[in-house]
Design brief:
Strand content: 35-45%
Radius of gyration: 28 Å
Structural class: alpha+beta
Distance between the termini: 97 Å
Shape: elongated
Strand order of the largest sheet: 1-2-3-4-5-6-10-9-8-7
Helix content: 25-40%
Order of helices and strands: HEEEEEEHEEEE
Number of helices: 2
Length: 181
């Protein structure tokens, strides 16, 4: 007579541990590991995500977002000014952190953020000299402690600049440019 198999009535603690370990290993191999690999490839090769309305690109140097209307924003290392940033706007010559472009209410706007190790006084003097030399007019200043606001107009452009010396002795300069259409 063939030997009958006994039904499994319970699991030992070792069996439970083995199942938990195998489940965890399967989760890691089939879920976590692919996410890690895709993330690393995205950083190394540059990731591009597209929808019908927005294109998002990212790599180890930063990111860029462009919508279907051409509005853009980028930030990170080695940035360039946004597409079509008005060349008549003098931008402080140092490290560009971010830049962007946006169309709204029959106007086009651009932004740029620059950081420099130059002190507040040097930045203020350079902004005044550069905008005067470039033919900008209707200057308005507000200066307080180690921060300042500057605005000027030229043709159909208005620029507003905020600059502030930080605690680590660098100066951050933020530009907003608006073009009336």
């Amino acid at each position: 007579m063939p030997e009958s198999k006994k039904p499994i009535t319970g699991m030992t603690e070792t069996d439970k541990k083995v199942i938990i370990i195998l489940s965890g290993l399967a989760f890691f191999v089939f879920v976590v590991l692919p996410i890690i690999v895709l993330t690393i490839l995205g950083i190394i090769l540059g990731a591009v995500i597209r929808t019908n309305d927005v294109r998002f690109t990212a790599d180890s140097n930063g990111f860029e977002v462009i919508d279907k209307n051409g509005n853009q924003l980028s930030a990170g290392n080695n940035q360039q000014l946004a597409k079509d940033f008005p060349i008549s706007v003098p931008v402080y010559p140092d490290t560009l952190l971010s830049s962007g472009k946006l169309d709204f209410d029959n106007k086009t706007g651009w932004e740029a953020v620059v950081t420099t190790k130059d002190n507040f006084v040097e930045v203020k003097r350079s902004i005044e000299d550069d905008f005067t030399e470039a033919g900008w007019g209707q200057f308005k200043y507000t200066l307080e402690n180690n921060s300042g606001k500057f605005s000027a107009t030229k043709d159909n452009l208005t620029v507003n600049i905020f600059f502030q010396q930080t605690d680590n002795d660098s100066t951050i300069i933020a530009y907003t440019v608006v073009q009336s259409k």
